[in-house]
Amino acid sequence: LVLNNDDIVIGSESKKASHVFSTDQSRGVLHRAFSVCLFDSSTGEMLLQKRASTKITFPNVWTNTCCSHPLHGMEVNEVDGPEDVKDGSVKGVKAAAVRKLEHELGIPVGELPIENFKFLTRLHYWAADTVTHGEKSPWGEHEIDYVLFITVP
């Protein structure tokens, strides 16, 4: 979901095109993302995940439980508007999180109810992947990232 600086959806772009830096888009394309932090209620520990070596940005880097992007055209709508952010519901981002938690960690849809996710905030950030690709990295992130917490037994 391509965004303007006010976090309004203005279009869509491929994953690759959103993350590549070029003379036209020196910081890539601003797009929506989410980060899930899943906590164990008995220990308070957060589940970390090592990113796959095949990722174009930040491969083999330890990160939060799950991070990805909501998409256009999904069976469960993943596109939130300003009113969803204002009231804190962000059901689209939460649906995207459920989808990716199944894809990346094998957690079945329905095992983590959407209403159990807590939307904390959103962050606008930019980061070049200099760890993997060096000082002149052609890849990176330019995102408004929705931060979600969930605690499981």
Could you walk me through the main structural features you see in this protein, from its secondary elements to its overall organization?
- The protein has 153 residues and is of the alpha+beta class.
- It contains four helices and eight strands.
- It has helices at 15-19, 82-87, 91-105, 130-133, and strands at 2-3, 9-11, 31-40, 49-50, 62-63, 66-68, 118-128, 140-152.
- The strands form three sheets. The protein has a four-stranded mixed β-sheet, covered by helices on one side.
- The longest helix is centred in the middle third of the chain and has 15 residues, at 91-105.
- It is globular, with a radius of gyration of 15 Å.
- The chain starts with a strand and ends with a strand.
Features of this protein?
alpha+beta, 4-stranded mixed β-sheet, 153 residues, 30% strand, single chain
Output the helix-strand order: EEHEEEEHHEHE
Q: Radius of gyration in whole Å, from Cα?
A: 15 Å
Helix content percent band: 10-25%
Estimate what percentage of residues fall within beta strands.
25-35%
**Residue ranges: pLDDT <50 for 5 or more in a row?**
none
Q: What is the general shape?
A: globular
| Structural class by secondary-structure content | alpha+beta
- The total count of helices amounts to 4
Task: Identify the strand order in the major beta sheet.
Answer: 6-3-8-7
Distance between the termini: 33 Å
